[in-house]
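All the exercises in this workshop are built on plain-text protein records. A learned vocabulary of local backbone shapes supplies the integers on the structure line. Once this layout is familiar, the rest of the handout is easier to follow. An example says more than a description, so a record of this kind follows:
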Amino acid sequence: MLYRVTAHILKEKMPAFHEALTNGTIQNQKPDGAEIVAAMKRAVITAPGIIEWYETCFCPTPLQHERATVFDHYLTEIEAVAVESSEEIKGEPFWVYLEQVSKFPPGGP
């Protein structure tokens, strides 16, 4: 089923999230690691501290495994709403934000 997902980011955890997304830790997770990485590449920042994206999930509870293994460590207030189809979500690319905060983490140079 297709879901439109909204979540609040935990800013202090974004450098670690970026590291896990790019070093293979999440990508190699079975069965959904590749989809999690792809979803975060599609995610956009729609308001300060808030990201949105579409994700397909076949869990009885939406994003149950994804939340337990990844999302609940880096995001809060996650809401998944079933939708029939996706449409463009306007905002700034979350992936670019992740790259920037990884170069200049809080308390860094």
Summary: The chain is about 35% helix and 25% strand. The mean pLDDT is 93.
